[in-house]
Amino acid sequence: KKSTGSSKTQESAMKKKKKQKKTKGDPKTGQEEESHTCCGCRFPLLFALLQLALGISVTVLGFLMAGISSSLLVRDTPYWAGIIVCVVSLVGFVMLCISYQPDEKTCVQFTVKLMYFLLSALGLLACVLAVAFAAHHYLQMTKFTCDTVLESCQCKLDTEDPLGRTFVYQDAADCGSLTSMLNLYLLLQMVLNLIAALVCLSACFVMWKHRYQVFYVGVRFYPLTPTEGQQQKV
């Protein structure tokens, strides 16, 4: 009877230990599970939503600018930057559908996270280029002197220079409305692309920090703890 009573007490003690492990868990794994969440949401959700909204806005605005005049260059209508940011957001949504595991234990999770990081870096570069092109064009527009000639708007930086470059905007009957619309669209493109670049940069920073834990790459050392069998023997 004593032996059966002692075995029952041991079994009950083992069950209690297992329950405590399930409820409490390893603090390191708990920190890892909390590290990929933000405001109760999984990591890429907020970034992906912002990237999708900004990417659609930049793309629509770029096509609207292309509809103003057929002679506008591709660099002046940065719908390509918006499309790249939209692709980045879609990859972020795909990453949400993959079950999270610490330290990228699955090849699919590692591949998707790498694609999201690289595409975010590409989106950052594209948005910075779009801001640079829009700012350059906006500065030129502020110095233009425009005249309407045969349903086209011809603008010059220096009207007194006969050899100066002439910028021609086709399919524009009114130069005043064209310049005002272009100035507004260029300002919006600068603001939207700048915000999109900051979002992509933040996404890259958070992923880098989460993967390498504050820019440090090293081996984890766990304390040597005796096993349960050794504890019972002692």
TrEMBL record:
Bias type Polar residues, positions: 1-12
Keywords on record: Membrane, Transmembrane, Transmembrane helix
Keyword Transmembrane: yes
Chief location: membrane
Gene Ontology CC entries for this record: dystrophin-associated glycoprotein complex; sarcolemma
Membrane-spanning segments: 45-68, 80-102, 114-135, 186-208
Name of the featured protein: SSPN protein
Membrane topology, from the record: Multi-pass membrane protein
Ranges annotated as biased composition (Basic and acidic residues): 23-35
UniProt-annotated location(s): Membrane
UniProt-listed Pfam families: CD20 (PF04103)
